[in-house]
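Just curious. Protein, please.
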Amino acid sequence: MFILSRWVLKFAVAALCACAYSHACGGAVAPSRAIKLALVEGLSGPNGNAGEAVYRNLVWAVERVNARGGIRTQDAGHVDLVLQRFDSKGQNEEALSALRSALDAGARFILQGNSSANAATLIDAINKHNEREPARRVLLLNYSAVDPALTNEKCSFWHFRFDAHADMRMAALMDVLRDDKAVLRVYLIGQDYSFGQSVLREARRQLGVQRPDVQIVGDELHPMARVKDFLPYAAKIKASGAHAVVTGNWGNDLTLLVKAARDVGYEGKFYTFYGNALGAPAAIGEAGVGKVVAVADWLPNVATVDGDSFYRSFRARYPQPSDDYVHMRMQLMVEALAQALEGTAAVDAPGAMDMVAIGTRLEGARTSLGGQTGSMRAFDHQFQQPLVVGVMERQGTPGVRFDVEGSGYGFRVVKSISSALAAMPSTCRMLRP
């Protein structure tokens, strides 16, 4: 209770301080000594709930850094991190417009993740901006855009990914599906853009290696964030006789898919990248017990004392059930950035921050929080961290101390994969400044 109360008090104080600078607190201007972080994310539209979940996590991470005194600079002073938000609406052109606004506002760190297509667009734009304006260089910190190409053939010194990429996540899922001998027929479905395409491509490849006995009875892509009625898709899944669905769907596309599957009476399993939150567990309800499988960098029911305290403090910060979606990787990302910034020249003026030096320090970042430890791999800027796979169960069953979003259902950890085993080779040939 003492630990929880201390966390809550510190974050409450930090929240009041941050409110003086945040756009979310009336649009006040950040002080000139602040280090500005710009969230460029889809905060409206069909996947706005996913963007807002990101924002909550980043606010909490920034509050934690500021509560302990912020960033110590070369002049022995301290400055706060300030998070500003720019709505990309999940569209490439809007993301570029948001980037321009963030640069004009003095941001030196761009945070984005909920679209691999947006991430690729931003990487290209930032590469060009940093070459054109070396005094105003910025870094892109990516917490969720998991197209493997972003740290392979499209790798950039200015881009750092803190999520496991799609192939790493798929390998973790396949570690569980490999031993699920009841699954003999699989239906593949995903969103029709770079990430969704890569998920299905890697699912086909890994099924061929790990489970050559499994028949793929469906393989299709659908428009991203534009399908309102997934019943026709669910009907095809049920008619195929699939024992399991493999999908990388996220946001509203996942929630509507699992709702439709429940409505048509589909009784197979869902092997998912993101089935552990954003309404999906509540949408499928009792029908998902023992059947919805999710891979993640961390789950609340990972059994560590530090993890329990970490999760309880998040729920104290955001007590509404609908706000319950904590991302450990985003917390580690902000901690890694704070580590790289310590002792730098942080005055908010053109040329004051050496972004090459900060990027080089970020390449060596190793951070721990809530029982989770991760480190940045320098040669491709792909964060290395453990992964876990969980299966949906009723809260209170062994291994399920915490539920999700007040649904009464949580995820029991069935597989833990060390960062060494989760690692994959890279084809990155990075050009360094």
Observations:
- The first strand starts at residue 35 and ends at 41.
- The domain at 2-164+305-384 is CATH 3.40.50.2300 (Rossmann fold).
- The radius of gyration is 21 Å.
- Confidence is low (pLDDT under 50) at residues 1-29.
